[in-house]
Design a protein that fits this description.
By secondary structure, the protein is an alpha/beta fold. The chain has ten helices and seven strands. The chain has two domains: 5-188 and 244-271, NAD(P)-binding Rossmann-like Domain (Rossmann fold); 191-241. It has helices at residues 14-25, 39-50, 66-80, 103-131, 143-146, 154-174, 192-204, 218-236, 246-257, 281-288; strands spanning 4-8, 28-34, 56-60, 85-88, 135-140, 179-186, 268-271. GO terms for molecular function: oxidoreductase activity, acting on the CH-OH group of donors, NAD or NADP as acceptor; quinone binding.
């Protein structure tokens, strides 16, 4: 029996893909979204989702474009008959020293990570209110939006913090319609977004040369950099599991999307293995050496 229909933005890879698969295993029909450039990857995710026995379709849209978000939601409603869950997962990484951050990069980061979440929240809410049966709205924040733990991630952290405030404000207004609004704030997990942030941080503080942004050899460096970061997190994490996995995030999102989470709203759930309880000074020094 179907649990309803869920939209997952930014679901061509990484955490978004894991969320889509987890929701499908929990009985949700899934509307996959990503940029047109990611269509081939998104089609591969679709093939995996349908194997779980639910309905699934893909929708190309830029979440920072309001008209495209509206068109996506209208298309999902036309295809599935309604929306029960919106997971505004799409986001972009950006790391640069604070004083070197161009305004254009700041604007782009906020356009996707904050404006995109706002637009998905807004138009999903409009549809859910019209349906009159409540719903679940869930957005992506990040550990950097809860506590600044890495250098050179000002724009990314500020956009994640803005999502937390947006989530709480939306929850206050939408509760009367039986719509819960929550966010999830993971630490770096084994996903493409985290890898890109690590690379950007290392470039910004001088460990990697600027040309490494387009140099294929960076993949070798990134593997070892990520491995070192993983050992650092394992060493600081109170839990024996150490580094987080994509499905650690996806499982939390699946619970927030469930009927059992009916009394949880306005929350930003941290998924970091307890790292925010530790001191990050030592870790930051290690990154900068």
């Amino acid at each position: 029996m179907s649990q309803g229909t869920a939209i997952v933005t930014g679901s061509a890879q990484g955490i978004g893909k894991a969320i889509a698969l987890n929701l499908s295993r929990n009985g949700f029909n899934v509307a996959l979204n990503d940029l047109p450039s990611e269509k081939a990857k998104l089609d591969m995710v679709l093939n995996e989702v349908v194997l779980t026995g639910v309905q699934c379709r893909t929708y190309m849209a830029d979440v920072s474009n309001e008209q495209e978000v509206k068109a996506m939601i209208l298309a999902v409603v036309s295809d599935f008959g309604g929306i029960d869950v919106m997971v505004a997962n799409a986001g972009v990484p950006y790391a640069q020293k604070f004083v070197d951050t161009p305004a254009e990069s700041w604007d782009h980061t906020f356009a996707v990570n904050t404006r995109g979440v706002f637009l998905c929240y807004k138009h999903a809410a409009i549809q859910m209110i019209a349906q009159g049966r409540g719903g679940r709205i869930i957005g992506a924040s990040a550990i950097q939006g809860v506590q600044a733990v890495w250098p050179s991630a000002t724009a990314y952290g500020a956009s994640a913090a803005a999502t937390r405030g947006l989530t709480q404000s939306a929850a206050l207004e939408l509760g009367a319609h039986n719509i819960t609004v929550n966010a999830y704030a993971p630490t770096f997990v084994d996903a493409a977004l985290g890898h890109q942030i690590v690379k950007d941080i290392d470039i910004s503080i001088g460990i990697l040369p600027e040309q490494s942004k387009t140099n294929e050899i960076v993949n070798i460096y990134l593997f070892f950099s990520w491995l070192l970061l993983s050992f650092r997190e394992i060493a600081r994490c109170p839990l024996p599991q150490g580094i987080g996995q994509r499905n650690d995030v996806a499982s939390v999102v699946a619970y927030l999307a469930s009927k059992e989470a009916r009394f949880i709203t306005g929350q930003c759930v941290s998924i970091n293995g307890g790292l925010v309880m530790t001191q990050f000074d030592e870790m930051i020094v290690l990154v900068q050496v």
